[in-house]
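Slides due. Your pick:
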Amino acid sequence: MEAARFTGKCRMEFQAEAKLLLLLQLLWVTCCGHAHIRVERYASIIDVTNGGTWGDWTWPEMCPDGYFASGFSIKVEPPQGIPGDDTALNGIRLHCTRGNAEQNTHVVESQSGSWGSWSEPLWCPGRHFLVAFSLRVEPFSFPGDNTAVNNVRFRCSDGVELEGPGLSWGDYGDWSDSCVKGVCGLQTKIQKPRGPRDDTALNDVRIFCCNS
């Protein structure tokens, strides 16, 4: 029991340090002029605990000032059969609006994997925004064809849940914390193509929350 408490505490401390490092990286990006990111706008970062372990965190992408994500779409590779190499979910796009999906839509995408095609966007009803998310992840198997993230679902500010048209391997983990107002950006963890070795593409996601 004591060992479990210690492990959990270490995991929470590591996640907090990772978030602090990310904010420092964003501050450096802003100061050095490599991207137009206003760090002070972003109120918090939300994540989940069941993301895959492979790959590296890529660059964050943010909605324009005053915009929030009202919808999303995903990049999915269909099942490849035997002896194909499945990668399942390869990317996520946020569709940012000012509360009206019919006008002024701006699409943002962090780095995505190389395989699959993009779905049509799913939208929150009315003038609501995305506020939380959950990932469907296939656990590591050996020997086996690993896929990591298979699907994603988002919760809207009115409580409606939207599930992407991804694949069904693995299970959904817990929901992330909720944004106070809405989602405004994302950052993906991507495994680069590995040639003849097993590919997994998208492994994890961080979501940015804004209040204005």
